[in-house]
Design brief:
44% of the residues lie in helices and 13% in strands. The protein is of the alpha+beta class and 432 residues long. The structure holds zinc ion. Zinc ion binds next to helix 8.
């Protein structure tokens, strides 16, 4: 995973990414958010400094990722490079592409990749150079169009003394195109000309991944760049694309803090909701589906924790020959068929004849994939549910039923289920 802190333009959907630098856009947004008090005090001193902007949004992303139990960013900090730390390797690759005829410099000094020099350009996304020639018209200014050999040629380096972020280069002080960073970082950090798996959102297939393939293969001479491409489909909200203007664009934090459903949501619930759809189908986020996710998480965690208690946390020795684990992993081996895998898990737990020690061991194995058992509640509240339960029991003992009733309502309003047990009243935090 890499952090793109330079080179993104607002028209990245064009191979030649024109428009405004996204860092300038982010600076404006950040200043507005600072004014309206959305940015914590002291988080950003100077909202015009692109490094501070990048750091602010990177930290927000990492905090959400951590809350959701995503591992990569935390266990491998060295493998989460910033594009701005890799300008030298980008310049090396551009030099190579110029030398072997895959790139050229225009009279105005701009360096482009020549798509006509790479016959496989378009293979990943199903584009042809012919339809790219037609489709690119209209959104590129006349000077750029005249400079390029083919309208599909994309930027490798742009000399621009006035740009927000700029570096010295053999082609003048300027900045790199945004595709080149990924080719360079993947090769250098993963240490291979051909990598195993490249992931990304479906919107990155073209132009971004198409351009990465052309640059990498142009530079390495290999006949592939990644053995597998896995493109995740967009998440939808109520059946529609997420949209800022329609108010249906949420961050993970918004969901945790109850800004979406009016109730705090445990990260395990959002994690389950996000992972239960197959990566090649659109996830449709709705309030109802989130509440289904909460029921599923509760069912699994209650089942696992009851077994853990019953066996005093002494899991049995277990391996993948256990029938549920075998079925679960077989489903996942079929192009990550997660719904099949979850189906196997719940079919087993609904009618389980295993000993608690075996159940606990199997749940722990499954949780290496699901990652639900150890996630921490993110909601912050001063409400002391345990104290309220004690007061409620005292009120009942004193036959002060009015106070007991008031306390019960308070506990429920704070987001708990109230259970009457032999040991007294217990409050169990609702997951969503
Ligand atoms: Zn990339």
């Amino acid at each position: 995973m890499n952090i793109t802190d330079v080179g993104h333009m607002t028209e990245d959907d064009l191979a030649d990414g024109g428009g405004e630098d996204k860092m300038e856009l982010a600076a404006r947004r950040l200043k507005e958010d600072k004014k309206s008090g959305k940015v914590p005090e002291g988080a950003v001193d100077n909202a015009d400094d692109p490094y501070q902007i990048a750091n602010y949004y990177t930290q927000a992303f990492l905090n959400d990722a951590k809350a959701l139990g995503l591992k990569v960013a935390f266990e491998y900090p060295d493998s989460m490079p910033h594009a701005t730390q890799c300008i030298d390797i980008m310049q090396e690759m551009i030099t190579k592409l110029l030398a072997n005829g895959h790139a050229y410099q225009t009279d105005t000094g701009v360096v482009y990749f020549s798509v006509e020099s790479f016959p496989d350009y378009g293979k990943l996304s199903g584009n042809t150079l012919g339809n790219l020639r037609g489709g690119a018209g209209g959104r590129i200014d006349a000077q750029t169009a005249a400079d390029k050999r083919h309208p599909g040629d994309f930027l490798l380096w742009k000399p621009d003394e006035k740009h927000l972020m700029k570096w010295d280069s053999p082609w003048g002080k300027g900045y790199p195109g945004w595709h080149i960073e990924c080719s360079c970082m993947a090769r250098t950090l993963l240490g291979a000309d051909v990598i195993d798996i490249h992931t990304g959102g479906e919107d990155l297939t073209f132009p971004h991944h198409e351009c990465e393939i052309a640059q990498s293969r142009g530079a390495t001479g290999q006949d592939s760049f990644a053995k597998f491409w896995m493109h995740a489909r967009f998440s939808l909200v109520d059946g529609q694309k997420m949209s800022k203007s329609k108010g249906s664009f949420f961050t993970a934090r918004d969901v945790f803090e109850g800004k979406v459903t009016g109730r705090n949501v445990h990260p395990a619930v959002l994690r389950y909701e996000l992972m239960r759809s197959h990566y090649r189908s659109n996830l449709n986020f709705t309030t109802a589906s989130l509440s289904d996710a909460a029921s599923a998480v509760k069912k699994f965690t209650d089942f696992a924790n009851a077994a853990k208690q019953a066996c005093h946390d002494q899991p049995a020795e277990i391996d993948l020959t256990h029938p549920m684990l075998q079925a679960f992993t077989e489903s996942l081996s079929e192009d990550l068929n997660i719904s099949g895998a979850l189906g196997e898990l719940f079919a087993w737990s609904n009618d389980c004849k295993d000993e608690p020690a075996t159940i606990w061991a199997a749940c722990k194995q499954v949780d290496r994939v699901l990652g639900l058992l150890d996630l921490k509640d993110q909601s912050t509240s001063d409400f002391d549910a345990t104290a309220a339960c004690t007061q409620l029991d005292e009120a009942r003992a004193n036959k002060d039923y009015a106070t007991a009733d008031t306390l019960r309502k308070q506990i429920i309003e704070a987001g708990y289920d109230v259970l009457t047990t032999k040991q007294g009243t217990q409050a169990v935090k609702k997951l969503a």
